[in-house]
# Entry
Amino acid sequence: MIKTILERKDLTSLPIETVAYLAMMEVLEKHDPTLVSNIKKELHDQRNSLKLIASENYSSIPVQIAMGNYLTDKYAEGHPFHRFYAGCDNVDAIESTGSARAKKLFGADHAYIQPHSGADANLIAYWAILIKRVETPYIESLGKKSVNELTDKEYEEVRRQFSEQKIMGMALDAGGHLTHGSRVNFSSKMMKSVSYGVDQGTGLLDYKKIKEQAMLEKPAILVAGYSAYPRLIDFSIMREIADACGATLLVDMAHFAGLVAGKQLTGRFNPIPYADVVTSTTHKTLRGPRGGIILCKESYAPFIDKGCPYAIGGPLPHIMAAKSLAFAECLDPSFEIYAKNIIKNAKAMAKRFMEKGVTLISDGTDNHLVLVNVEKSFGLSGRQAESLLSGCGITVNRNAIPLDINGPWYTSGIRLGTPALTTRGMKEGEMIEIVDIICHLLSSAKASFDLESEKRSKAKVDIDEKIVVKTKNELQKLLARFPLYPEII
# Structure
């Protein structure tokens, strides 16, 4: 048993983060020991596994503490200094500070830090763009001032026009996100959806084909960005395409926002100067709390700021406080070194995979992630590889690849990312070590199945238990060299 805070004699010698964590756990344990047990188990699991999920990271202890406070008790619909409730002075100050830091960090005209997630950010952004492009001009054409002045018939016309607009984004199996127009997502249900893919030979975006498709489809919103594309996007070309077809250019940089903030994606690979609207999460490469953010040109600001009433109710002031702190951390010069190391580690990982004959989508990476074709390389489905690796303490996610023969549930690929391991201090040498461990494990596995009754993607995977034990031992030796949250004891 850990001594209670009051019993400890060495408090002054402990880091303040340690004291804060111990005190927090002590208070929680008094009220809900089962909850605390699960929280501590999560810390144990994360400390004792390799987190290679490209969309996950480790936020700092101060950021985590900022999320747990009485700001959560406050309703603050609206935006700074324009609220629907009284008593929001402190929330106004916190949100304004966070927005100012985000603008400085990214060099953006405007920042809206209320979205609860990246999906929320995209939903708000889509509505804002449609209201700017469709609803506002329609209202003005009638000589009216607001949507509430429309007759029922006039309002139905606006709704019809909304549903006739098109969104064009990267296809899910090409590396896009659900919110970029997938049929199972709101993005394809509020608008007509068309998707662009990648060249089947190279796995790269074909800008000429994207332009031809955009000129044919004439989308209202052209979405650039990805969740599983290992290369960079030339946003200057996407801007040209958007201008040519008359679209609003929205960039979803949820995955690579930290690489932009860390000044590793610059020039035409930085979306801020080119996009009308940029959305992101704050918890991936930005290494902040779970949440979303929208950046935009000044002309879009009045529309973006109305996330409430568009799609969300009250924002989460305690999370906005944590976002603000995370932006401050990103403004520190050390964050540029971190972002640079993310890419160096991903490149080292990709190079080692290819040296060992493993097939990678696009034959490498330019960012923070690597997409492995495990079906071709190891005769396994993505789900089989994910489960096998997870059982040994290596956390990845199965991921669809272009023209995936196993579908979106079982998949033929796995996605690996370096942000979290880079946060732990690992470098290129460790990436090589990890790839060697992964390849040995996956190449030792065999899928056993009955051809008459079962697809290989669903088959049981057999592996020598000695190899599993050896893999776990190697991983623990590696992890011991890079302790997670060492300030927490």
